[in-house]
Amino acid sequence: MEHRERIGWNLRKIRTAKRVTQENLAVDANVDRTTISGIERGDFNASVDLLARLAAALATDISAFFEIPESQLPPEPMKAGRKPGR
User: Of the candidates 27, 25, 28, which has an alpha carbon nearest to the alpha carbon of residue 39?
Assistant: First the structure.
């Protein structure tokens, strides 16, 4: 797994575990939703500053994005549709 893929994988794992949508994370981190999607797919090369904003928005440490995943199974997706407010 390449570095961008690992970061995207961990971002999605953390985000879905906390039940945060891409839209809500984008608002909290002051970025476009397509940026979140691009990072999670491994298409976007995020800066350290952006990763720090995402970590702060998810109330986690930036180092969590660099952990080696225990499983190669993708994180469970959130159910489609409107999400309840936080």
Answer: 25
In sequence order, the 6+-apart residues with CB closer than 8 A to the CB of 14 are 58, 60, 64, 65
- pLDDT at res. 60: 97
Nearest Cα residue to 62 out of 46, 86, 77: 46
DSSP letters for 8-54? HHHHHHHHHHTT--HHHHHHHHTS-HHHHHHHHHT-S---HHHHHHH
Split at pLDDT 50, 70, 90, the class of 69 is confident
Structure token digits, residue 38: 């691009």
DSSP 71: -
What CA–CA distance (Å, rounded) separates 66 from 24? 22
